[in-house]
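so the lab meeting is tmrw and i was supposed to have these ready like two days ago... anyway. pasting both below. for each one the top line is the aa sequence and the line under it is the structure tokens. i havent really looked at them closely yet so no promises
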Amino acid sequence: MYGLLAMTLGPGLLILGWIYLKDKYEKEPLYLLLLAFLGGAISTVFVLYANTLWQNLGFGISQDSILPTAFYAFVSVGGTEEFAKLLVVLLFFYKRKAFNEPFDGIVYCVAVSMGFATAENFLYVYGNAAPEDARWVALLRMFTAVPAHATFGILMGFFVGHSKFDKYQAGYLALAFFSAAFTHGAYDFFLFIRNIPGISIGAFISLFLGIRYARKAIKYNQEVSPFRQG
């Protein structure tokens, strides 16, 4: 029981801890990270409601046509989830005094994303999976869905961080949303198409590319930190 709980809760907290350590020069208060994590978890309620509306409107995965599946992946799932995460950051953390350098955008967006991914883990592991499959579902998501959400959060956070300290605020915020939503949508799109053998490899290619750019985003924001000495 405790092993399954650790596999469900642990990955998000470990990734958040790793990002906290990457914030080398002026760390965020831990209570704000906890609030961001909880905010991300609570935002799943909005997403569940929104996805129900999308499904009631007839949007979902189709095995007969790529276009409905693409809409579902990029808009219903990727767009809705990333909008919810971005909204939490903008409403509750963006204007705080502690948000005082570009790297903080990554920290808060990842904290919210990990809260979201962890709540999603609980839904999949304890709500949707059969008891005999729960451990396998938790293990699979540990190495796929949770790192994917972290990647989307880093890409979003890079642009959110620069939006606060650049005159092109609206443009950076648009990039924050679309970069995360597109990467998220691409990842899910290739997983949703099941009638083309081998196409799911596209999800892992998109995730690999996302991780590559996320690492570059982390390194760049560390280098431009105003608190960096020398």
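ok protien two:
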Amino acid sequence: MIARVLTIAGSDSGGGAGIEADIKTIAALGGYACTTITAVTAQNTQGVFGVHTLPAEFVRLSIQTVLNDIGVDAVKLGMLANADIIAAVAESLPRGVPVVLDPVMVATSGAVLLPDDAIANVKKLLMPLATIVTPNLPEAAKLTGRALQGADDYLAAGQALLAMGAKAALIKGGHGDGDMLTDTLVYEGGVEVFSHPRIHTKNTHGTGCTLASAIATGLAQGLGLVEAVRRAHDYLQSAIQHAPGFGGGHGPVWHGVKV
């Protein structure tokens, strides 16, 4: 049976991140993507020029409509926009299926994308439902209140996220320094470190969405947690290496690398 993955996130009109990246990733890895859109954006490789957020009740209806007919084997959470949407999502999520929480909270520029009440709802309502949470370094710092400078800090941040209720945490080290990129997976069974040579490129738009969707697809297909994360990393590295070079800013990766 083809694995069904529901992605709940914002739409990227440039196609490199958000719902569009999620659909491409899920399909490339052999899954079937369903969607609930939380917001639509006007954006390209050079920036976001407009955001229109959908009503929380419509988000709730979208989730329930998919669940009532098609069903899902895993859920991926991305940009959730505000506290009301986060509450609606938390109430509507199916129980008993893997949930990958990509806490889209802090932009690469350092700008905070969620207000404080929304961040509080992520921690209170979504973290206990997460099979795995996948923050980058600024997001992990925001969630835990810790400064993250190195491997020991990554481990401590992961443990802090588990204490909030998540079953696993992948602290992504892409915002760190050095020629090696290291992600630290902290889970109930131990710790796993994934290291790759840093690919020096501007074409990294949507990498967080892509990684989280790839993990969700693996979990939906029955892979174990570590195996799903490992395959997702391999897929993302290949997608970055084969980026098409579109646009004048931070371009998308090539999601079709596995097709």
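from a quick look at the 2nd one: The helical segments are 18-28, 56-69, 83-92, 116-126, 137-144, 151-163, 207-220, 225-241. The first strand starts at residue 4 and ends at 11. will dig more after coffe
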